[in-house]
Amino acid sequence: MEHIVVVGASLAGLRAVEAFRREGFAGRLTFVGAEPDEPYDRPPLSKAYLAGDADRSSLALRAQGYDELDVDLRLGQSAHSLDVSGRTVGVGDESVAFDGLVIATGAAPRRLPTQPDVAGVHTLRTIADSDAIGAWIEGDARLCVIGAGFIGAEVAATARSRNRAVTVLEALPQPMVRGVGPVIGEVLARLHRARGVDLRLGVGVDAIAGDSTVERVHLVDGSVVECDAVLVAIGAVPTTDWLEGSGLTVDNGVVCDASLHAAPGIVAAGDVCRWPNEQFDGEVMRIEHWTNAAEQGTHAARSLLAGDDAAPFATVPFVWSDQYDVKIQSAGRFSGEDRMEIVSGSVEEDRFVAIFERGGRISGVLGFSQPRRVIQYRRMIADHESFDAALAFAAENP
Amino acid sequence: MKIVVDFDKCKSNAVCMAVAPDIFEVRDDNFLYVLQEEPPEDRRPAVEEAIRTCPTGAISVEG
Predict the structure, then answer these.
(1) Chain A contact for B11, CB < 8 A?
(2) Pair A245, A185 in one domain
């Protein structure tokens, strides 16, 4: 392999580039990114950076720079097409030939079908998005957040920490209830209400209204939320439009095999990658979280170099979210339908651990400000321990 | 190799403890403790993985 192209210059792509050099790849590396900035860290965009507690330079994922990697870094350039059999990727006016390709184009925020293009209506993915929302918070705006997932909840928490008026609209009866179940959903609701968020559950958005700038959000039940800025935080869609007609299978992400290959010589990593995770009996997953992007980028690079001998990427997904003074972490696979037991702490004190059962095994863990325990249970999930063994561990380690 | 943790950056996510529990430990007080400040050379790959997967980029090595 002489020339490897990595498309997507964020965490997964960067970890792939670093892994190629670490593994001894001495050929040419081209690293293409649509955004103008060097790869940066996104989690602070809804937390410390948004709050003004971290400066822009602190976001750089590679503070030491790119010289050592000997990479042709092409920022502000989007890949718009791929020819799998011809082994070329279209970047701007150029057709770039490759021997190996890493697809790490991430995901883009989902928009409301009725989302108008008026000032003050935002989604959050990039530094520019965070800067725009931060300016509203700085300006004492009344903020309306649509969607009580992690991004919406983190932005709400950041705005409340600056004492801004925040309304959060959520279509479900509890925040994240499908994922975490009603008990923890209730805890999440209380967490925000106790800190002054006007949290409205089970409500649908009819329209975002305003002339030149947003003024109010109309709900399906006829009520109205007056606001100066709106954050639409209703999930993300994998960035695969540029792969249409490429010959790759795209179905809610780039469909890969267990080793992250989408085709011979082509691998994918990060938010855009859908693959069977052998850690969970081959359950097909697509994961939009930091740790997965970091681990998968590294693995995808190794897989590409190994070719037919590539190892499967088997992992226990890990997620964290900081909201107010609470650190929420989860690992593994679970849903609101699964059996759940609180095994440590208490939900009233916002410090607890919940474990989830599937097929007799411990399949997932969620903790509020209990990082040590979450990591211990994550290990048990990785080891395919039984739920009874996890309960026995819990009895000895409250 | 000497482990350096920037405790201003560390947010106690404990991912390092998952990677190398013999070197990194987050205790019940939610603080990170470095169990081996100068781990043996054969632990370098694990230390480097901990550096790469630390959500806040708080870990580095000297030497």
Answers:
(1) yes
(2) no
**Domain contains A315:** no
Most A CBs within 10 A among B9, B19, B26, B31, hence the mutation to make, goes to B26
Phi, psi of B36 (to 5 degrees): -130, 105
pLDDT of residue B58: 96
Residue partners of B6: CB distance under 8 A and separation at least 6: B58, B59, B60
Residues A144 and A257 in one domain: no
Per-residue model confidence (pLDDT) at position B63: 87
Domain B2-62 listed as CATH 3.40.50.2000:
no
Q: Which domain holds residue A358?
A: 325-396
CATH of the domain at A69: 3.50.50.60
Q: Is B52's CB within 8 Å of A15's CB? A: yes
Question: How many residue pairs bridge chain A and chain B with CB atoms within 8 Å of each other?
Answer: 46
Interval A100-139: pLDDT, tens: 999 999 999 999 998 999 999 999 999 999 999 999 999 9
- Across the interface, which of A290, A369, A375 has its CB nearest the CB of B17? A375
> To the nearest whole angstrom, how far is the Cα of A225 from the nearest Cα of chain B?
35
**DSSP labels, A222-279:** S-EEE-SEEEE-S-EEE--GGGTTSSS-BSSSEE--TTSEEETTEEE-GGGEEEEEGG
Domain boundaries, chain B: 2-62
Of A15, A43, A374, the CB nearest to B55: A43
Q: Is the ipTM of this complex over 0.90?
A: yes
Q: Please check whether residue A318 lies inside any domain of the structure.
A: no
| Residue A330 and residue A282 share a domain | no
A294 Cβ under 8 Å from any chain B Cβ: yes
Q: DSSP of B16-54, one letter per residue?
A: HHHH-TTTEEE-TTS-EEES-SS--GGGHHHHHHHHHH-
Task: Report residue A54 as tokens.
Answer: 């971290």
pLDDT in tens, A19-74: 999 999 999 999 999 999 999 999 999 999 999 999 999 999 999 999 999 999 99
Q: Is the pLDDT of residue A307 over 90?
A: yes
A384 Cβ under 8 Å from any chain B Cβ: no
Q: Is the same domain home to A117 and A227?
A: yes
pLDDT confidence of A367, banded at 50, 70, 90?
Answer: very high
Provide φ and ψ at A392, rounded to 5°.
Answer: -65, -40
pLDDT value for A17: 98
Asked if residue A12 and residue A88 are part of one domain, the reply reads yes
| Phi and psi, residue A83, nearest 5° | -115, 105
- Region A207-232: mean pLDDT is 97
